[in-house]
Amino acid sequence: GCGDDFAAGWASRIHSRVLCSMGRVSEGVDAARACVAHYERLKQERPDYYFSGLTELAGAHRVAGEFSDARAAMEQSELWADDVGSREALALAAMEAAELARAVEHYDEAREHYATCAELFDALGGKNRLLVPLNLCLVDLESGELEAPLEPLQQLREEFSNVGMEGFTPLVDLGLAACHAKRGDWPAFDRCVELAREKLISQDVRDQELAGLAVIAAKAALDAGAANGSRAWQLAQELGGPDGRLSRVRDVAALEDRWG
Prior knowledge:
Blueprint: H1 2-21, H2 25-40, H3 47-63, H4 67-84, H5 87-103, H6 107-124, H7 131-142, H8 150-162, H9 169-183, H10 186-202, H11 208-223, H12 229-238, H13 246-259
C-alpha cells in the first residue's frame, strides 16, 4: 500500500545517504534507485516524494562520479519540481544542478544555479539560506581563489555554530586552512586542520567533498613550500580520497610525489 511504499522509500533514502557517507557509493546508488522505485508508485498523489527520490538519486550518481546518470536524474527531478510547485523544491533542484556543475568544474554555471538558490532560500527564510554562501566559497576555493573566501568563511563558522549546524564546520575549517596557507599563517592553518580532523575522524566520516578540500589545503601549503600540508594530505587520505575531478587528480599526483 501507499504507507508501505512511503516507509520503504524513506528507509532507502536514508540508507543511501549513510552508504555514501561511508564511501560505499555504488551501494548508495542502488539504495537511491530503490527509493525512486517506491516513490514512483506514489507520484500522482505525492509528487513531492517522487521529486525527493529523484534528487537523491542524482546526488548519489554525482558522488559516484557517474555524471551523465546524475544529469539525467536531475533533469527528471526538475520536471517534477514544477509539479510540486513549492519554492523549496525549486531551491533543492537548483542546488543539485549547482552541485553537479561544480563536480564537472563548470564553476560559472554553478554560481548561476547558486544565485537561483539564494533567491529562493531568502524567500523561504530559515537556516538553509547559509548553505548558498558556503557553497559559493567552496566554488572559489575549487577554482583556485584562496583569498576572497577568508572573511565569509570566518563569518559562516560563527553562524553555523549559532544555529546548531555544527556539522558544516569541518567544511568551513578546511576551507579556512586553504586560505591561511595562501596567507602563510601556519599556526592558523594547523589549528583549522586539527579542528576538522578531530570532528571527522571521531565520527569515522568518508566524504569526497571534504577530502577534496583537504587536498586543496595541502596543495596550497605545498605550493608555499611548507611541510604543514602533510597533515591535511593525511586527512584527505583518511577521508577516502577526493573524487575524480581533473584538478584534484593533478593535485593528488603532486602531493603523492611529496608526501606519499
